[in-house]
């Protein structure tokens, strides 16, 4: 029966701790520096969904993207450098469209967008 040496055990544990620290640092940096936005296709078929994100102050376009999102799948956006309100417009290939003024763009907040067959809903997730 193969045995693991003390040196291999310590090396393995050290590697796990290092990976955890790196992963935590990346997640913390990403959370802290950029709001996140997730578009969730809540239908039973793939949809082409267009996301347009603009700054409220000067209407600068930060994102203008059309993504094919699988049934019950999602598509995310990160790196939205903003501590100001944003207008988020979602448009589907079926003709649904809705715009939301995202006021709470603090770096720790996220915006979740649910697209169903007959509506588009927006929910801001804020830390407790």
Describe this structure in words.
The structure is a single chain. With 128 residues, this protein is of the alpha+beta class. The protein has one helix at residues 6-33, and strands at 36-41, 47-55, 61-69, 74-77, 86-92, 97-102, 110-115, 120-125. A hairpin with a 4-residue loop joins β5 and β6. Residues 6-34 have low confidence and may be disordered.
Annotation keywords:
128 residues, alpha+beta, four-stranded mixed sheet, four-stranded antiparallel sheet, 1 helix, 8 strands, globular
List the helices and strands and how they pair.
Elements: H1 6-33, E1 36-41, E2 47-55, E3 61-69, E4 74-77, E5 86-92, E6 97-102, E7 110-115, E8 120-125
Parallel strand pairs: 1-7
Antiparallel strand pairs: 1-4, 2-3, 2-5, 5-6, 7-8
